[in-house]
Design a protein that fits this description.
The chain is an alpha+beta fold. The strands form 3 sheets. It has an 11-stranded antiparallel beta sheet with strand order 1-2-5-8-10-9-14-15-13-12-11, with helices on both faces. Helix 1 packs across helix 4. The longest helix is centred in the middle third of the chain and has 19 residues.
Length: about 375
């Protein structure tokens, strides 16, 4: 992998990733010629005293780009006189700081705005990046070659290392939202990376469960769940020498797959070479199966896919006890429950956090096995 960092006209960082620097990686020194003003953000985080969770408030994001036509896509290369977020005329994988970030800047102390101390707010510190998987506007991740998917994995890993080293960052989340049904506002194949200044609620709950399991059984919760799913077999979607994918026993979404490396590691930076080499074929197969769930002639399946990585300690260190029991894994799910119908988060899910799934996990796993590539 060749990594080439540069700067956009407003000072944001852009990094090109190429499989090899000697093959087609031209224009990486192209200058961003747009007359851009410096990025101004108004991010803050506010603490919910009832749930014990932080909420980001980002008024500046109301002005972000919303469903531009294909010939005005800001993620395409700069060609034929049209200037975009990526100055090069072509690229393999490109990562840049989001122009409308939910989180940005250095950390700062939380301050109470009332005498009771209940209403805490702090700077919305951290960083948000955009990951462009290909310069082809009409492609999707599932269309990538294994070589290109491996390059994306390299980019995710490099960004995890870089962002984890920023002051105040506690957790790095690499993810992709795909499809208008999910809420995607740019059609170009891309994902995002969030570097949070706190441990996310999902991870906090998982860590509590892992600690309770360790105290009760002496075992690792992730290892034991993976072993139990493999032993049961009904919800296993695919297995290789270094990866296992299954629909979880209590899946929340109509079609939901968790992908684990068979050797537990904390985050992408610790993933072994054998597992890294095998990942592209496994992941591309899962994405292609997702597009076949509902049969031929159906539109692409909308999905969310994200890497769950171990958080860092309060001081940014990796020796924090909270990392010890965590296992890197990817969660992939769709909100489409059947042809032409979506799963909406209505009263029970949105109001109380209690999911109601219309598709039994065993049925979902069976369907995902049926649509395997021949």
């Amino acid at each position: 992998m060749k990594k080439t960092p540069t700067r956009l006209a407003d000072g944001r960082e852009l990094v090109y990733y190429d499989v090899r620097g000697d093959r087609g990686a031209t224009g990486r020194d192209a200058v961003d010629r747009r007359p851009l003003d410096a990025v101004a953000t108004a991010s803050e985080i506010r603490h919910d005293p009832l749930l014990g969770e932080w909420v980001a408030v980002t008024a500046h994001r109301q002005a972000r780009t919303y469903h531009p036509p294909a010939d005005e896509c800001p993620l395409c290369p700069s060609r034929d006189g049209r200037l975009t977020e990526i100055p090069a005329e072509d690229y393999e994988v490109a990562v840049f700081e989001n122009r409308f970030p939910s989180l940005a800047g250095p950390p700062g102390p939380a301050e109470a705005e009332d005498e009771s101390g209940l209403f805490l707010r702090a700077p919305g510190a951290g960083r948000c990046e955009v990951v462009c998987f290909t310069s082809d506007h009409d492609a999707s991740f599932a269309d990538l070659t294994e070589e290109r998917a491996a390059l994306v994995l390299d980019a995710w890993t490099d960004r995890t290392a870089e962002l984890s080293a920023l002051p105040g960052v506690r957790q790095v989340f690499c993810f992709e939202n795909r499809g208008r049904e999910i809420g995607v506002t740019l059609g170009h194949p891309h994902g995002q990376i969030y570097a949070y200044p706190f441990v996310t609620p999902h991870t906090e709950q998982t860590l509590r469960s892992a600690a309770a399991h360790r105290e009760r059984t002496g075992g690792n919760l992730f290892d034991d769940v993976l072993a139990a799913e493999r032993a049961d077999g009904r919800r296993v979607v695919l297995e290789t020498g270094h990866w296992a994918a299954f629909v979880p026993h209590a899946a929340r979404w109509p079609y939901e797959v968790h992908l684990y490396p068979r050797r537990r590691v904390a985050d992408l930076t610790e993933l072994g070479e054998d597992a890294r080499a095998e990942f592209p074929g496994v992941y591309l197969e899962l994405l292609r199966r997702f597009d076949r769930i509902f049969g031929p002639g159906e539109p692409p399946t909308p999905y969310i896919s994200g890497w769950h990585q171990a958080p860092l300690g309060p001081d940014g260190g990796k020796d924090w006890a909270g990392r010890t029991d965590f296992a890197l894994h990817l969660e992939l799910f769709t909100i489409r429950r059947t042809s032409g119908k979506l799963k909406y988060l209505a009263g029970s899910e949105s109001g109380m956090g209690v999911f109601i799934n219309d598709v039994p996990p065993e049925t979902a796993a069976r369907r995902l096995r049926e649509v395997a590539s021949r």
